[in-house]
Structures are given as C-alpha cells and as structure tokens.
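Propose amino acids for all 275 sites.
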C-alpha cells in the first residue's frame, strides 16, 4: 500500500473513527443518571462480588455500562472505515442486503461482506440466519445482472480463525470467515495493515484520554453522591431498597436519606406526643 494511502487512512481513522468515538463517549457519560443505570444492571451480580463501598459500586456499574456501549459504538465506526478502504481501492459500496454490509468487485469476483465487531458475535440461530441471507443476497444480485462469481465473507475486525472456509451442502450458503489480520488483509491487500492501524489510534487517544478521565472522575463522584443519597442506610448499601427499586412489581418512589430521616423523626415525635 502506498504512503499516500496510509496518510489518507490515518486521517480518516482520526476524523471519522477516533473523534466521533470520543464525542459519543463524552455524550454517553454526561447523560448517565444513577437511577437509570441501576435499572439496567443485575444487582445480584454486584452483591455476589461483595461490593460494599458506594464508590466501588457506582464505578462498577458505570464501567460495565460504558464497556457494552463502547464495543457497539467503536465497532460501527470501524465498520465504516473498512467500507471506506474498499471504496477507495475498488469502488466498494455499503450494502442494503440483509447480513451484508459491503459489496465490491475485485479481480473478477463479486464479494458480499458482513462485518462483525468481534469474536463474541453469533449463536447458531444467528449464523444460520446469516447463511440464509447470503443465499438470498446471491439470488438478488444475479437477478440484478451480476454474472461474476459471488463470494460471501463474514469479516471479524479482531480475533482469528484458522479454518476460514465454511463449507455447506448448499453452495449458495458457503462463505469465508476472515478475522483480525486476515480480515484487514482481505480488505486492504496489506498483510501488516492490522498493525499499522494502531499508530494513529494510539497518538490521538493519548490526546483525548486525559480530558475524558477528568470528566469520568467528576461523573463518578457526582453519581456516588447521588447513590449515597438514595441507596445508603446507616452508611451502608441498602441492598433491599436497591433490589426493590430494580425488580419490585410496583413502582418504588425513591426518597433521599435526609428525607427518610426527617420522616422518621416526625413519626417519633408524633408517637411521643400521643404517649
């Protein structure tokens, strides 16, 4: 691959992958509310891990939430990068066919490519659905006038698979699975490209990460204070209250510790007057 192409791809990675990734990270972080995020996480898991510090609990659920979000966000952006490479090298286009993200022709072969972010994708039902969609895609493309051999590829952005050919009794369901180095080499025809991508990512991430860490720390402290206000009793995590908030059939109205203490005092005073 030429030096000019490397520069173009490095610029694309920074402007269209790294920058929007951090923009979305900041946006997701700023939008987080402790009362919303608690409802999305399994309280029994965190109790099983014996978490008893408010700050540790908040950090754990925030990290788990952000991690699941970030995998999807970055995967979608990196998918766009793979499509961009194919577009610049072979006139590839983003596909509208089911299970297909990219279409391009190279050396007399028409490729249909489904791009997945990583190795955790796909149970047996999803894989069978993908194979069915590859068959349908081939039929649609032939009707559109594609006469070349149509090769289906399931591409993984990282990981590895030493047996890429996935054979099938139905030839229209045969596909290749290219992962990690093999995937990026398939897209770019550069066997070292999977390593070279790290360089611009590393440089730009170092610039942005310091700002993100400051914002992240401030958000964790803010959410910890709110968590302590609503889910602590006698300076300990009130797990019953927390489980009720997440899972109780009826809606649970949250009251701050201060409000609950005030209510308890009022009840005590009322009881004393009655006596």
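Proposal:
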């Amino acid at each position: 691959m030429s030096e000019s192409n490397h520069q173009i791809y490095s610029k694309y990675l920074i402007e269209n992958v790294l920058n929007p990734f951090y923009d979305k990270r900041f946006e997701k972080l700023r939008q987080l509310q402790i009362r919303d995020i608690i409802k999305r996480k399994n309280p029994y898991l965190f109790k099983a891990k014996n978490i008893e510090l408010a700050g540790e609990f908040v950090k754990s659920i925030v990290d788990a939430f952000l991690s699941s979000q970030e995998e999807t966000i970055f995967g979608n952006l990196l998918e766009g990068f793979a499509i961009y490479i194919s577009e610049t090298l072979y006139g590839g286009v983003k596909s509208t066919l089911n299970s297909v993200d990219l279409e391009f022709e190279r050396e007399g072969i028409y490729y249909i490519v489904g791009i997945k972010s990583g190795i955790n994708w796909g149970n047996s039902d999803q894989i069978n659905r993908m194979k069915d969609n590859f068959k349908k895609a081939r039929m649609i493309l032939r009707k559109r006038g594609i006469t070349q051999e149509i090769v289906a590829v399931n591409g993984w952005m990282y990981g590895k698979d030493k047996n890429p050919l996935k054979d099938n009794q139905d030839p229209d369901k045969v596909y290749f699975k290219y992962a990690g180095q093999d995937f990026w080499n398939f897209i770019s025809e550069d066997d070292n490209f999977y390593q070279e991508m790290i360089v611009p990512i590393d440089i730009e991430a170092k610039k942005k990460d310091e700002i993100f860490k400051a914002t992240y720390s401030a958000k964790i402290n803010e959410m910890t204070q709110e968590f302590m206000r609503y889910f602590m009793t006698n300076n300990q995590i009130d797990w019953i209250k927390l489980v009720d908030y997440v899972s109780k059939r009826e809606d649970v109205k949250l009251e701050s510790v201060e409000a609950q203490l005030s209510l308890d005092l009022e009840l005590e005073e009322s009881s004393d007057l009655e006596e």
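The first strand starts at residue 93 and ends at 94. Confidence is low (pLDDT under 50) at residues 261-267.
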